[in-house]
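Repro:
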Amino acid sequence: MSNIHRREFLKDSIFAAAAGFTGLSAGWAFAQGLKHDPLIEEDALGLAALLHAGEISQLELLEIFIRRVEVMNPVLNFMTNEAFDRARKAAGTIPLDTRFAGVPILMKDLIDIGGLRRTDGSRLMLENRPARNVAYVDALEQAGLNIFGQTNVPEMASFIITNNEVFGATRNPWSLDHSVFSSSGGSAVAVASGAVPIAHGTDGAGSNRLPPSATGILGMKPSRFRMRSGEVGGGHDIAKTNHVLTRTVRDSAAAFAETEDLSGKVYQPVGFVQGSSRQRLRVGLVSPDGALMNSEPEVLDAQQRAGLLLESLGHTVEETPWPVDSEAMADAYIKFFAGKVGALKKTVETVSGKPLMESGLLTPLLASNILSSAAYNEKDIAQGRDYLATLEAVFENVFNDIDVLLAPVAPVVAPPLYEHTPQELWSDELAQYSAARLKYTAPVNFSGCPAMSVPLGRSRSTGIPIGSHFIAAKGAERLLYELAYELEESQPWRGIWAPFSLKYIPV
C-alpha cells in the first residue's frame, strides 16, 4: 500500500467508530466515505513485512486496528479492556528487526500483563492489576507484538459459553444467535471478524480448539511444558497452556517459535516450521460411541469428509475407538474442578462479609457451582486427580500404533448464545451439558499432548464452521504444523470470511 493510499484510508475510516455496523447499509456507508479495509487479507506476518519495508508505520497500523475494534466490537462483544494508549506509547519504539515488528495483538483476559487490569470476566477481579508480565507475555512482546486490549471470557473460564455478567455474551460472527464455546471465545471472534489476524488464548480443557472450531480459524494447543510459562512464579499448570489463534498456519507457527521454551529441559525447541512434509501419516479416525451424548449429524459428516481428504492426500486412515472412558473422565473432571475452586468461597466471603450466594461478586452460576463442589472431600478430589493422571499413559499407548488421532472438536457445532446463562444455578444437568461438550478436548489437556482445530467443515443448516481435531504424541508439534500446512494448501480457508466480518463491512 502506498503512503498516499494508506493515509487516505486512515482519514476515511475515522467515521467508523460512530457508525458501527448494525443495520448499516452499504450505500450509506460508502456515501460517508467508509471503505473496505485494504489490509484485511494480510495475516500478521504479511503486515510485519509491510512494517519491515516501511510501507506503513507501527502507529498507523495500530490506528487501523483500533478502528476495526471500534466497528466490530459493539455487535460481536469480544473485548473486555482496551489498552489503546499503552499501545500508542509502544508504537514507534518496537524494533523493526523483530519477527512481528509492531503488529498489534489482543490478549485473552486470563493472563497477567504488567499494568493492565486482569478481570477473568468476574466482578471479584475488577480491581486486579498485575504489576508485571508473566514469561509468556514477555516472549510475545519480545517478538514485536503490540498489546492493545483484552478479550472476553466466561467468568474464570468456568463454563462452556463465553458470557459473563460484567461484559456480556460474545456473539459468533457466522451466526449472531450462536456462541463460539469458550473460554478463548473473545479472541477467536476477534480473529474471525478480521479485527486482528492474531490473538492470544489459553487452553485448559479445549479453549484454543473449541472457539476456533466454531469460527473457522486455526487453534493450536501445545504440549504441556512446551511454552514459556504463563503462570506467576514461572511454573506450569497441569492442564493449561498458552498459544495464539490465527487465520493462517504460518502466523501460528511463527508465534510458536517465538514463545516456546528454548531451554530444552523437557523438549528440544521446534523452531519456525515453514511448510508441509512428505511424510505420510497413519491417522486414527475416531468412531462415534454415543457416550455422554451423540454427535450431531453435521459433526459426523465433517469428520468423515476430513478423513476422505486425508486419504486423497495419501495418508492412511482407519477407524479407531476414542481411547477415553468419557463417563469416568466427566466424573474426574468435576472433582478436579472442585479442588481448584474450593478456596474461592472463603475468599469471596472474606472480601464481601456476606455468604457466597449473597456476595454479588460471583455470578449465580459460578457461586452455586462452588457450593456444589463442597460435596467433594479431599479423598474425592484426589481420586479425580489420580484418574486424570492415567490419561498420559492412555494416549502414549494410542500413539504406539498411529501418528495422529482425528476426532471431533465437540459433539455439537456450536451452542445457541443463551442456551444457558450466568444467571442460572448449577445442577447435575449443567455438569452433564459441559462434560459432553468437552468430551474430546479436555482429556487431551491432561494427557500433555498437543492438538489443533483445523477449519475443514461447515454446517449446512447454520453456516457455522466445524473444526477437525488433530491430536499427536507429546512433543509432536512439528508433525501437526506440517500437516496443517498441507491441509491449508489443499483446502484453503484463509479467504473464507464470516458474514459479520470486516471483509464485508466497510470501516
